[in-house]
Amino acid sequence: WRVRKHGEVEGFEHVQAVLAGQKGVFGMALHNMNLEFACRIVGLTHPSIAFYRKHNNPLMDYLQYHGRARSNKYMIHKRNARALLAALEEGELCLYLPDQDYGRNQSIFVPFGGVKETATTTATLMFIRRTSSLPLIVTSQYTASGYKVKFYPPMNELKTLDDVPALTLLNENIADIINEQPESYLWMHKRFKTRPDPKAPSLYK
Q: At residue 178, what are phi and psi to the nearest 5 degrees?
C-alpha cells in the first residue's frame, strides 16, 4: 500500500493503446535514481517483463532481481535476447534500458546530452525492428509526495530510420526527458565511458 500511496503513473494511455492493438510494448526505461521503486509502480499498474544485467555482487543481484520482479511477471537475463523477442511478439509490456555503454563493438557513436560522440547500443534497434512491438520511452521522476512513472508516446519512426538517425533521435528524446528533472538521473552510471579513439583520455579522470 505504501507504493500505491507514494507512486503515480502518467501517460499509461499510450501503453494501453498499443496493447489494445494486439502489439507488444518495448518500453525504453532510463537509468534513474528511483528505478527500483519505479519497477514496483509499473508492476502494480500492469505487470511487465524486464531485461536486466546480473549484478556482480550475489546479494545485490538477489535484491535487484526480486525487487524488480515483485508485482511484475519475470526478468530476462541480457544474454537471452530470444526470450525478450518472444515476449514482445506475444504482446507483453517489456522494459529495456537503452542508455548503457556496452563498448564500441556493440555500439555506434552518436550525439547525446552535449557529448558529440557517445557509444549507443544498436541492440535497441534490433528489438524494435525484429518484432511488431512499438517502442516508447518510460522514465521515473520525483514528486512532492513520492515518485511518478511517466510513459511517452510511441516512437514509430525508429522502425524505419537508418541506424545513425534513429539512435540520434532516440538520444535527443532521452536527453530532453532527463532535462525535465536532471536530479533524477543516475549520472554516476558513466554513460560516456567508451570513446571513439581507444587512446583518448577518459572523460571521468
A: -60, -40
Residue 185 vs residues 29, 98, 114, 159: alpha-carbon distances, Å: 11, 14, 15, 27
Per residue in 184-196, pLDDT tens? Answer: 999 988 899 999 9
CB burial string 74-99: b at 16+ within 10 A, e below: ebbebeeeebbbebbeeebbbbbbbb
39 part of a folded domain: yes
pLDDT for 180 beyond 90: yes
Q: Does some domain include residue 199?
A: no
Domain range for 51 is: 2-189
Assigned domain for 23 exists: yes
Phi, psi dihedral angles at 184 (to 5 degrees): -80, -20
Region 133-147 average pLDDT: 96
| 73 found inside a domain | yes
Name the one residue in this structure whose C-alpha cell is 502494480: 44
Cell numbers at 16, concatenated:
494501453
Summarised one tens digit per residue, pLDDT across range 71-120 is 889 889 889 999 999 999 999 999 999 998 999 988 999 999 999 999 99
Count of domains observed in the chain: 1
Q: Is the pLDDT of residue 63 over 80?
A: no
